Amino acid sequence: MARNEPQESGPPGIVVAYRPHPGCAQALHEVCAGIEEEGMHFRAVELEAADAAGLAHQAALCSQLLVGVGIDEGELCVQLAALPADAPLERLTVGSDESGCQRHVGHNAARLVKVMPLKGYGYGDGEETDVLQPGEARAEQVRQHEDKNADAAVTHGGTTNDAEVSQA
Q: Do 37 and 106 contact (CB within 8 A), yes or no?
């Protein structure tokens, strides 16, 4: 399926690509349930690729939302169309009985579209924890940069725009 092929009718959605294998139906069900729980639409398609990363990349290229999920035996990947095919945003190795992990992948795919923090999985007792918080991460980068500049100015006898440091 190429990116310029016509999309199926209906609202834009995340494309979930899979290669049939034992446990595929369960994994597909859980991933799609995770996407739906986040309020997003999806479309499942059977594709051929070398691995889950390849499936996810093809899916992202086919999606109007530019986000895809790949499901292969023992592996799940979430991918953005802009990333290289061999560098998925998220790659998880799972067993066929790990429905929580499979659903987690669906959640994160939908959260990418909604520009929400991604959730981490496996931080003890199945607890999910926000691991990507763009606003907080950027604020911390700015604080570190300001601290570094203030320290450099004081060390070299200069001043900074920071009132507390300038008065030192």
A: yes
Higher-pLDDT residue of 45, 2: 45
CATH architecture, range 14-130: 3-Layer(aba) Sandwich (3.40)
Of 31, 38, 34, the closest CA to residue 52 belongs to 31
Annotated domain spans of the chain: 14-130, 134-166
User: Comparing C-alpha atoms, which of 118, 98, 96 is closest to residue 21?
Assistant: 96
Measured in Å, how far apart are the chain's first and last C-alpha atoms?
Answer: 64
DSSP structure string for 100-125: HHHHHHHHHHHHHHTT---EE--SST
The two structure tokens encoding residue 135:
């606003």
pTM greater than 0.70:
no
Instruction: Say whether pLDDT at 122 is over 80.
Output: no
3-state helix, strand, coil in the chain (%, to 5): 40, 20, 45
* Distance (Å, whole) CA 163 – CA 155: 16
Are 88 and 82 in contact, with CB atoms under 8 Å apart? no
Over residues 35-63, the pLDDT tens digits come to: 999 999 999 999 999 999 999 999 999 99
Beta bridge partners of 5: none
